Amino acid sequence: MICITQNIAGSLQDFLIQTSPDKIFLLCDSDTSRFCIPLISNVTLDHIIEVPAGDSAKTLQVCDSIWNELAEQGATRQSLLICLGGGSITDLGGFIAATYQRGITACYVPTTLLCMVDAGIGGKNGINLGGLKNYIGTFRLPMAIIIDPNFLKTLPENEWLNGKAEIIKHSLLSGNGWSELSLLGFPENNDIQGWKKIIESNSSYKQEIITADFTENNIRARLNFGHTAAHALEYLYSKKGQILPHGKAVAAGMIVETMAAEAFQICKPELTNEIKTLIFTMFDHVVFNEDDIEILNIAASKDKKSHSRDIVCSFISAPGQPCNPTGISESDMTKAWMRYLHETV
Ligand SMILES: NC(=O)c1ccc[n+]([C@@H]2O[C@H](COP(=O)([O-])OP(=O)(O)OC[C@H]3O[C@@H](n4cnc5c(N)ncnc54)[C@H](O)[C@@H]3O)[C@@H](O)[C@H]2O)c1
Questions:
Q1: Of 24, 43, 51, 320, which has the fewest CB atoms closer than 10 Å, so is most exposed?
Q2: d(Cα 326, Cα 314) in Å, to the nearest integer?
């Protein structure tokens, strides 16, 4: 169940009355504890578990400490775990809820734009295995996802960009709102009503895809548009000891992959231009050089979605017309990286 509300405390309280768990636990991070708990301060909780903020909390060590804290505080199979945060908290908390005593009920309360439109929807949860992202986890849906766009009022600008990149991707895949988005761009960050509409259409699009293919055997893989190139760029940056924000990587990845699709006449040059124009109004060019392309290709072909030596990308032929994953050769991918490198808007 997805509920989009502008009264998070009331909606959460209603859900608690309906489900009547024996104990209510809340998982948050150091930032959502500070910025987001105040919006639900009148909801009665039995115990709050706080972990460090960000993706680095998605480890087995942090899981171990949460499982222990739940056990010490008397959590049973009738208890509820509310996950209050962005994708790091819903990934971690979803995994904890799936595994503690073989599974307890979870409720997600997403607080980042990315989590409201993407990470919190779809039932993928998990933790990292050393440097391997999201290698351990399960597919399991929370009982409820309660979204209140008012949480966005405290979200830092760089976190907005991560969500905006996925919304551009959804709009290109579904065709919904692409003409408006490519012409007018996004609403101002403080336009909560405008964002509520965007969250409604994006969460329902993702819901539609996962209902059709929950465990990613076919059409869910289309959601990887832009992500083969994005993961390669993130890998390159991490090798250099730098961090490339995921949204910036996805934005560049969509351009690179559309350039590759254009070379195969899968899409028209106008599409590449529209995507580039929109993306460069909000994202900087991702910096790399020609010598990096070999590493980028190795990283792209090692992407866990690839089944062969080819580089597998999920292209689109036009807004609303996604293609099934397609393998392309390293030399074709090299041409796309080179084009991105030398071409600006
Ligand atoms: N399961 C999936 O399908 C899926 C999809 C995409 C991404 N992910 C995962 O999601 C994670 C990234 O999630 P994210 O982008 O939501 O970031 P995040 O959860 O790491 O949060 C980023 C930062 O924003 C802070 N924050 C969250 N809400 C806030 C608010 N309302 N006000 C102020 N600060 C706030 C957090 O505390 C944190 O410091 C990654 O671990 C990624 O692997 C999962």
A1: 320
A2: 6
Strand 311-313, strand 326-328: pairing: antiparallel
Mutate to test the pocket of ligand 1, among 115, 152, 157, 167 (most ligand atoms within 8 A of CB): 115
The alpha carbon of 162 and the centre of ligand 1 are apart by a number of angstroms equal to 9
- Reply yes or no on whether 224 is catalytic: yes
Q: How far is the CA of 273 from the centre of ligand 1 (A)?
A: 30
Q: Residues 164, 169, 170, 220: which is the catalytic one?
A: 220
DSSP 19-79: H--SSEEEEEEHHHHHHTGGGGTTS--SEEEEE-SSGGG-SHHHHHHHHHHHHHTT--TT-
pLDDT at 310: 84
Answer yes or no: is pLDDT of 302 > 80. no
Mention the CATH class of domain 219-342. Answer: mainly alpha
Residue nearest to atom 25 of ligand 1 (CA): 31
Domains 2-154 and 219-342 share a fold: no
Rounded Cα distance, 159 and 151, in Å: 12
Residue 49 has phi, psi (to 5 degrees) of: -115, 125
pLDDT digits (tens, 9 = 90+) for 252-268: 999 999 999 999 999 99
In the residue annotation, 206 being an active-site residue is answered as yes
307 counts as catalytic = no
pLDDT at 35 over 90: yes
pLDDT for 226: 97
Give percent above pLDDT 90 in the chain.
92
Longest dimension (CA), the chain: 60
Strand stretches in 197-329, DSSP E: 311-313, 316-318, 321-322, 326-328
The binding-site residues of ligand 1, defined as CB within 6 angstroms of any ligand atom, are 29, 31-32, 35-36, 53-55, 58, 85-89, 91, 111-112, 114-115, 118-119, 122, 124, 133-134, 151, 154-155, 159, 162
Q: Is the pLDDT of residue 307 over 70?
A: no
Q: CATH classification of 2-154 is 3.90.76.10, yes or no? A: no
